[in-house]
C-alpha cells in the first residue's frame, strides 16, 4: 500500500522528457514505473550497491522492452548521487531497507540515506516530488525511520510540503511513507 501511494504521487507529475531517480532500485519495480512515466525522451537514474539488484532490474526492464537509453543503472550507493546527476530532477523514490529476496544483512544505512536525501532535495525542481518508503521492522530500520522523519520535519515549510502516512491498525514495524513536494526554490 505504501509503495502504491508513492507511485500514484509521482505519476501525477511525471511526463515524457522528465528526469527521475530511483535511489534504491531493488528488484526494479520503481525503476520500471519511472521509466514508463518519463517516456522515451526522459531519463531515470537508478542506484543500488548490490549486483543482484542491478541484474533483477535489468531483467525486469528488458522484459518490458524498456532497457534503453532512458535508464541508467548505477552500481553505487545513493549517497553518491551528486557524482552522477547535475541537472534538476522532477521526481525521486527511495524504498529503504533491504533487497526483497536478497541478503537481509545488506540494508540501507541511516548515515548514507540522509546524505542521499539531502542531495536529492537539492536536485529536485520546483513542483518536483520525492517518495520515501520506510521499513522500521528490520535491524536498523527504526533508527533510519526516525532520522528520516527528523530530517524532513525540519524542511522549510515555505519550500516543501511534507506528508507522513502510517498504517494505524498495524504494528509500529509496518512500512510507512513520506511524501515531499518542493513548492519553491
UniProtKB/TrEMBL annotation:
Q: Which InterPro entries match?
A: MnmM_MeTrfase (IPR010719), SAM-dependent_MTases_sf (IPR029063)
Q: Which GO terms describe its biological process?
A: methylation
Q: Does the keyword Membrane apply?
A: no
GO MF annotations in UniProt: methyltransferase activity
Keywords attached to this entry: Methyltransferase, Transferase
The protein in question is named Putative rRNA methylase
